[in-house]
Every structure is written in structure tokens, then in C-alpha cells.
Amino acid sequence: MKFLNNIWMAAGLVSCIIYTGCKAPALVQAPPAKVAPTTFANSSDTTNSGTIQWRDFFKDKYLISLVDTALKNNQELLITLQEIEIARNDIRSKQGLLLPRVEGGGGIGIEKVGRYTSQGAGDASADITPGKGVPEWLPDYRLGVFANWEIDAWKKLRNSKKAAVERYLATIEGRNFVITNLIAEIATSYYELLALDNQMDIVKQTIRLQQNALDIVRIQKQAAAATELAVKKFEAEVLNSQSLEFDILQKITIKENAINYLLGRYPQPIARDTTGILNLPPTQVSTGIPSQLLKNRPDIKQAELELIASKLDVQVARAEFYPSFNISAGLGLQSFSPKYLLTFPESLLFSLAGDVAGPLINKNAIKAEYYNANARQIKALYNYDRTILNAYIEIATELSTIKNQQQIFLLKSKQVDTLSASIEISNALFRSARADYLEVLLTQRDALESKLDLIETRLRQLNAVTNIYRALGGGWN
Questions:
Q1: Domain ranges of the chain
Q2: Are 198 and 267 in contact (CB under 8 A)?
Q3: Burial of 451 (0-12, 13-18, 19+ CB in 10 A)
Q4: How many CB atoms lie within 10 A of CB 441?
Q5: pLDDT for 258-304, tens place per residue?
């Protein structure tokens, strides 16, 4: 017991000497976090659509089926799950460093020392049995248990483990963020596919109208009421619309393949609603208040956890300046002959030692890692602020998009109705020779463009709703 007290007194004296010369240098302080606005568009309503489960937010059964498939097979999501497993194993690794390292084993060796050495001279005078000395070629048989333990006096190992836990939780939030983005990407791609279907139908209807007008102008030419120029103009317009039909068909194929990629499967037709995108009214959304983003958005929670981990990394790096305390011990059996190996207590081997070590000179590597840890902490803080700023701007932008696209849709609808009526009027006037062919062509072209624009406007409305649902953190829960 007195021996152990002497060990700890010596260790304490050495550690005090080392500690006084190993204080961590001062660091650049991280700037304070920015304060986010308290409301969106001056609304204090706390109702938040981001808390609605995606199955309840999206009503289309085909879309729900696509999302279900993607959540099972998407490769990016599966990769993220493996990153979570890696982070979980890192916690186990850090936990292991807190516990003593115990190893068991044995060994066999042989040794010959010089005759005229202190060890050789001592061996010559020792007898194991009467009249017999120690063998010149001395075997060595060992069997025992050995332990080594670093005392976590400065919480270096515990903080390292805590940092690993925070990063593990951050990977879970990263998975949730992938899920949120995946659902939004599938929804927007699905709506784009519906829009292309509608555009294809409109182009086909336009081709039929143009073909009828072409037949009329051909009849008029035969009656000398129209010229060959008019026939060629109508033929060119039909050909242009037919080429547009194949262009849309190619876009449909590309979009279907993009959705199949998100679903983790090879190209195949995408089952979808055939009622038309214009019959899908945008869902009403409520944004709540900005402070709810801290709880709902996975990327904000991920950035917060990474910031906490980086702060713990600074504490770990600081502890490298302080002395480390290690205890090593061994218990086993040792003998130069197998028949003496189990002889007690003569073959008993026991050792116990305490070590104190700390940096004194040339601490540049430790300082560099300390400064790097602090720089990573400030970087994580900036990333946290940027993530919150990005979330707020995304929501503000999509709110404006929803509002403006609603007005655009109403005006475009009136434009489509007006131009659709003008087609009938221009055709009637053309048949009675009261309008020329250019008026008919321009009217049909304007009507086609307005109908395609109306579909694009509805698509932007639906995508804005999907994007604001994603921006609010909806989908992962």
C-alpha cells in the first residue's frame, strides 16, 4: 500500500510540472449565432403543414405508391443507412477506449546470456535442484493476463465518445433529410410527367384542328379561293406541331426513366393519373413560424448536432495539452521449464506500473490540431446559420411563388378561353373568305402556346406547394 502511495505522489508531482507547461493557447472566439425573423409574411399562425405525414399531404394514390417503392429501393437512401451504421460503430470504438484493455496470451522463447555478465554470473550460482545449475540455454514459458488503462482525468475520451454520439444522431437527421428531398423530387417529377401528358393531348388536338384547316384551304385552292402559299403555310404548321409531339414524347421517356432511377429500378412505364394536371388543385399549406424549423427541418437539426460535436472536438484537442495517466498491470505464470510453470507461488508473475506523460517541447502538432478543431467549430457554426437562412429564404420564395402563380393561372385561364373562342371565330371567317389564312394560323398558334403555358403554370403551382412542404421539413416523419 505504501508503494502505491509513493507511485501516486510521484505521478502527481510530475503531472503538476507538466501541467504548468502544457496550458492550451487562446482561441479565436466563434461569432454569435444570427437571430432569425419571428414570422413568415407577418403571420403568427402556428399551424404547420410540415408536421403532416406525407401520405396525408399527397392525395394521389399513384404518387403514394411511387414514394413507397422509393423508400425501399432508392440507392442514395440505402447508402445513407450504411453511413448511420458506420457512425454507430464509431460510438462503440470510442466506448472501448474508456475501458481497460485486457489481453490474455502466452509465449515460448529461449535465451542465452553471456557467461561473464551480471546475469550470467548470477545464474551460475543458482541451483534449482541440488547439484544442478541453471541451463546455459534458458527456455522461457509464459502464460498470463495483461491490462492497460488510460485514466480519463481530463474527459478527453468521454468527450470524444459524446462527439461520436452527436455525429451518429446527425447521420440519422441526414437520412431524414434525404427522405424529405426524395419525396419532394418524386412528387415534382410525377407532376411534370402529368404536365407532359396534358401537353401531349393538347398538341394532338391542335394537330387535328390544323389538319382540318389544311383540308379547307386545299378545297379553297381547288376553287381558286386560296393560293398554294396558304397550303404550304398550313402544311408547315402541321409538320411543326407533329415534331412537337415527338419532342414531348421524348421528354416523357426521359422523365419516366428519371423516376425509375429514384425508385431504384430499371426503365418501365410509370402508372399515373389520367384525369389531367389541370384537375389537380394545389393543396393549401400553412407555414407556421420560423422557430418551428429548428424542430421540423432535418438539415437544421443535423447542422446543430454537428456544431455540438465540433465543440466537443475542441475540448478533446485541448486535453491533448495535459498529461495523460496510464496504469498497466500483468498477472500470469513464467518459468524456464514446463514442469515448473504451474508451481505456486514460485512461477507467479505480477506487475503494476503507473505512467504520467505530457508534451513539453515542440507542441506544434498538438497546437495545429487544436486550432483546426476550433476552425471546424466556427465552420460548423457558419454552416448552422447558413442552413437556417437557406430554410427561411426557401419558404419565403415559395410563398411568393404560390401567391403569384395563382394570379397568373387565373389570367392564363381567361386567355385560353378567349383564344379557344377565337379559333372558332377565325375558322368561320376563313370559310366565308372574310379572314385570310395568316389570321387562322396565328390564332391557332397563340391558342396552343396559351394552353401549354396554362399547364406550365399549374405545374409551377403544384411544385411550389411540394417545395414549401419540403422546406417546412415535411416528409421524413
A1: 27-100+154-324+361-471
A2: no
A3: buried
A4: 20
A5: 999 999 999 999 999 988 899 999 999 999 898 888 899 999 999 99
**Residue 396 CA to chain centroid, in angstroms?**
23
State the DSSP string of 371-408. Answer: HHHHHHHHHHHHHHHHHHHHHHHHHHHHHHHHHHHHHH
> Whole-model pTM?
0.85
β-sheet bridge partners, residue 349: 332
Quick one: DSSP state of residue 110? Answer: E
Which of helix, strand or coil describes residue 46?
Answer: coil
Q: Which CATH superfamily is domain 27-100+154-324+361-471 in?
A: Outer membrane efflux proteins (OEP) (1.20.1600.10)
Is-contact 403 459, C-beta < 8 A? Answer: no
Would you say 48 and 472 are in contact if contact means Cβ atoms under 8 Å apart?
Answer: yes
- Helix (H/G/I), strand (E/B), else coil: 40: strand
42: left (phi over 0), alpha (psi -120 to 50) or beta: left
Q: What is the DSSP string of 217-250?
A: HHHHHHTTSS-HHHHHHHHHHHHHHHHHHHHHHH
Q: Which residues contact 34 (CB under 8 A, 6 or more apart)?
A: 385, 388, 389
**Secondary structure of 314-366 in the HEC alphabet?**
HHHHHHCCCCEEEEEEEEEEEECCHHHCCCCCCCEEEEEEEEEECCCCCCHHH
Cα-flanking dihedrals φ and ψ of residue 138, to 5°? -100, 110
Q: Which pLDDT value is given to residue 114?
A: 75
Check: CB of residue 423 under 8 Å from CB of residue 442: no
**pLDDT score of 472:** 94
Q: Calculate the alpha carbon distances from 467 to 61, 197, 459, 471 in Å.
A: 20, 22, 12, 6
Distance between CA atoms of residues 166 and 171, nearest Å: 9
CA distance 134 to 124: 7
Contact predicate 35/278, CB 8 Å: no
Bridge partners for 325 per DSSP: 151, 356
CA 302 from centre of chain: 9
